[in-house]
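re: that chain from earlier
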Amino acid sequence: MRSSTFRPLSLLVLGGTRFLGRAVVEAVLADGHQVTLFNRGRTNPGLFPGVETVIGDRTGDLSALSHRRWDAVVDVAGYDPQVVGLSVDALRGRVGRYVFVSSLSVLADQSTPQNEDGELLVLREDMPPEEAYGARKAACERVVLDAFAQRASIVRPGMIVGPHDPTDRFAYWPRRFARGGRVLLPGDPADAAQFIDVRDVADWIVGCVGEERSGVFNVTGPTLAFGAFFEACRALAGARAETVWVPSERLLAAGVDPWMGVPMWIADPACEAINRVDVSRALAAGLTLRPLARTLVDTLAWDTARGALPQDREGLGEQEEQRLLRMLTD
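^ sequence. v structure.
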């Protein structure tokens, strides 16, 4: 039963029709709040027919948002500090809180476990693309914090998984186990994995507004062993799969990309702690996480319902997996 003190909030979502943005809108509506979307109308138009959508391009003209006020804005698609600066300037004085979705990629050192106070990447013109993404996100954080101070909520998710994930990193595994046969497992059973269900991130974001959570938060799930993750996949699929562990050094020697050449496997020494991030601050502030089994069941159901996938999907193709198994284990 809803509390007698419940007050519906008004939220503006920049984006709102793709993966995390979609989950945020669903969480807002489920909680009985009001939401306005601002986007270009290109991705999943009509996804929320009862929700007001303002068409516009945040890279240039945000005038359609003038003369409006909201309790908060949720920025799920800010990647360039100059573009985020335009949104900040347009919404300054029009929103009570700015919730910016950043990334754990902002951390300068991912070789040792970090909390929110770790050093951040600094954007340089000569940065390689894999570092520039995190550096741009870090610069965006500074733009939001400088403008909104205590009315800013910075959300740094790790790997986000679950239904409607546009990548194939997580969905690959419950689907692969369901297919059965010999399954190539990368690395060692004790290797770390860390991820979070998209719906848990969305709930946290909405809570940042309702509970006025200010500051920076690492928002991802607990670290668990790769072996435990794969056992959960096997339990969902039944006993049809034969698991074959292939050590990281063999995969690397065979030329497999160390950055998710096998989904969710990371063998880059500079990123040894990317799956050991400290999330104690968010947990203490109320982050709740659904059971892994529920995420797996829901992801497999969604993945099955969407049918055949394009041939260029992320993941390890069946022929390549079997080739590696023959070469590295037979």
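The chain has a mean pLDDT of 93.
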